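Quick question, first post here. What does this chain look like in 3D?
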Amino acid sequence: MEVQDEIHHERTYVSAGFRQSDRMRRDVPMGVAVYVLDLAIVVAAVFSAWFWLQAAGKPQRRVSKFEEFNHADINRLITALNRARILNARAAVTTAIAALLGGFRVALDLI
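> Answer (accepted):
Ran it through. C-alpha cells below.
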C-alpha cells in the first residue's frame, strides 16, 4: 500500500509539473504580445507627434495691403488649409490608434 501511495504521489507531482510548464509556455507568447503592443503604442505616438509637427508647419506668407489679392493668393490659402486639414486628420487617427493600443495594453495587465 505504501508503495502504491508513493507512486500515486509521484504521478501527481509530475502531472502538476507538466501543468506548470504548460502555463509557462502559454505565458511566453503573452509576454511577447505585450512587448509588441508596447512597441506599437510607441510607434503610433511617434507618428502622431510627427503629423502634428508637420501640421504646425511653416507660417504662410502675409499679404500686404498694398498688394493685389488675386486668385493665386486664394489658391495658396486653400492649399495650405487643405494640407493642414489632412495632416491634422492623420495625427488625430494615429492618436486614436495609440489610445486604443494603450487601452488594450491596460486590459492585458488586468487579465
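Residues 66 and 73 are 14 Å apart (CA to CA).
The mean pLDDT is 76.
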